[in-house]
Amino acid sequence: MTARPPSRNSSDPDVPKRVAAAAPPDRKTAAPKPRAGASHGVRAARPLTDGDRERLLAGAHHDPHALLGAHEMRGGVELRVLRPFARSVTVLAKGLRAELHEDGGGFFSGLLPMRTAPEYQLLVAYDDGTDEGTETEIEVQDPYRFLPSLGDLDLHLIGEGRHEELWRALGAHPMVHQGVTGTRFTLWAPNARGVRVIGDFNYWDGTAHPMRSLGSTGVWELFVPGVGEGTLYKFDITRPDDSHTLRADPMARRAEVPPANASIVTESHHVWHDEEWMAGRGDRPSHEAPFSVYELHLPSWRPGLTYRQLAVQLPAYVKDLGFTHVEFMPVAEHPFGGSWGYQVTGFYAPTSRMGTPDDFRHLVDALHRAGIGVIVDWVPAHFPKDDWALAEFDGRPLYEHEDPARAAHPDWGTLEFDYGRKEVRNFLVANATYWCEEFHIDGLRVDAVASMLYLDYSREQGEWTPNAHGGRENLDAVGFLQEMNATVYRRCPGVVTIAEESTAWDGVTRATHHVGPGGFGGLGFGLKWNMGWMHDSLGYVSHEPVHRKFHHNEMTFSMVYAYSENYVLPISHDEVVHGKRSLVSKMPGDWWQQRANHRAYLGFMWAHPGKQLLFMGQEFAQGAEWSEGHGPDWWLLDPSYAAEADHRGVRHLVRDLNTVYGATPALWQRDTDPGGFAWVEGDAAEDNVFAFLRYDASGTPLLALSHFSPVVRHEYRLGVPDAVQAWTEVLNTDGAQYGGSDVLNPDPLKPESVPSHGRPASIQLTLPPLATVWLRPA
């Protein structure tokens, strides 16, 4: 028999290499010797039925352990082995060396003269492929002598859809089982007729490694001795129609670098050093804390850097700018880089593009030690149709809804999860806690929540079916989001969940047990992106100043609903791609006016109730749209570039905005309390002026005013609280250091007993052109 050719990957504990010297240390290379007959006393075992034999060879048997391995019976111990391409198999045990009978098709068997099944090993001989006809022998453990390595409690919780640590039960786990080192492979595939594990350890031929079905849970399991970290693997699934499909592990915690897509056996060895951060991150609720977010796309922030290299540069950069958090666009494994991570195939695996899972842990650890929180975009709304991933995973709809009309996502050519199936909900809920617990993630920003909540999302009449109450709400998705949020907040103190939800759904950030007027409990998120504010305010500043008076309400309307949810004000990646232009390029006027508008807008944004989020590149007024192919235009900050000072000035402003913001509780402490805000001037449409007060918990105010006209207004009068003796300018976006015209209010401004804006006292100040000014009590 000809030896099987070697694979492209690492060593195999079962099948020998062509070159004996390349074999791992635990292999034994035998010298040429004549063939030996069966050992004395080994009788023939009962033959397999044709059906069992065929099903084993076809990978369609649900219980291979019932036929393979050692089984006590009358007359001895029956032992059967399936070793394709082997020339002989010898059983080794204490006091026993017995060669099994060859039954053809890779089967070897014998009836051993023993009363009880021994702890045994196999000595497997293969043709070494040379003309001399010599053999190579390897000594291996038999996977079919081991009891199931997954406990009854795990199976019960999986069956109930309530296994909150699902990643510890399913997937590939290196372990010591019955005193032997190996890897346990487990997979949920309830529609499969059979499952085999394949990988570089068996030359991608799973004939010898069929898995067993564990009851009615749909879970398949096999402990493979000798397999350890770094092993590549997939699952060979026999579908209900007897066809085969090769699939990556849905629970893989590490994957190959795309476009390769095999799963990799891994376990963590990272030692965390962020104890101080983890102990204190839950001391103050996110909506009552400073929360300023720098959003970035890790692969393109500094293209070519690994996680560990990013851990050197990113914390220092973000800390210098004063942001409290970073938000990573999705880091879960995805095949197409152009999706920016929003079409996920490996929900439990950080992308291998920049390193290993432990390398990613190292990056999070470094950010925490720098005092920076980490938010990750999480995408439970849909998944791509790649035929090696989740789509019709075991031959039938499994992760997606069984109704094709419900499964197909009309916008992205992807599939929507079946949130009504308990195992699918378990897969996603556990995934949320996985990122928080295994990687110390501080927040999950949940993508595309609106597409989950509505049955008619992007669908025309007749393309969707109402829910049981005749409505368009996706009740399964509502239940899933509530369960996810409740589980994360219960298990992971200090973590915040954030919804990207673009509609007026009631109660996105309301507690799940508080029922609203629509009859639903809250979804349970901690924060919600304010898409309305983003759309309206960007619309306003994109107009020429002379036209802005006709759009004044676009800047004030957000305060009508500002306290209906706990909001984040996002200027995200979505606003600076696909022809939308960068933030500074949205602004009208010449280059000076564009930058001035940009600075004034950021000042307005940082003072407005709600948390702030700014996408990379906008902190230094990048003029070009973002592209994942090359990332931010860092060359704009090169001192040799003529306009470098213009861009560096904007970045200097962002640093000062964050510095003053963090030191001023009035700007964040009462973001969700209407008592923390008061208009001073919200109707000055002709002047393009907005002025308001923010108050901290003790009542200390900050006065913020934004002037969106390119003129200087002298002696502009504003009503102020009469209890403040004087006001001093703490930030002015027109400062020369930021690239402005340096029209300032350098001296304290003392209130006069002149009524204005419904207040008994007022101040007069100079309004710089296209600028935001912050004043606080002197």
TrEMBL record:
Any Pfam family: Alpha-amylase
Region Disordered, annotated ranges: 1-49, 737-761
Matching CDD domains: AmyAc_Glg_BE, E_set_GBE_prok_N
Active-site residues, as the UniProt record annotates them: D447, E500
Reaction it catalyzes: Transfers a segment of a (1->4)-alpha-D-glucan chain to a primary hydroxy group in a similar glucan chain
EC numbers, comma separated: 2.4.1.18
NCBIfam families in the cross-refs: branching_enzym (TIGR01515), PRK05402.1 (NF003811), PRK12313.1 (NF008967)
Function: Catalyzes the formation of the alpha-1,6-glucosidic linkages in glycogen by scission of a 1,4-alpha-linked oligosaccharide from growing alpha-1,4-glucan chains and the subsequent attachment of the oligosaccharide to the alpha-1,6 position.
Subunit structure, interactors included: Monomer.
Protein's UniProt name: 1,4-alpha-glucan branching enzyme GlgB
Lineage of origin: Bacteria, Bacillati, Actinomycetota, Actinomycetes, Kitasatosporales
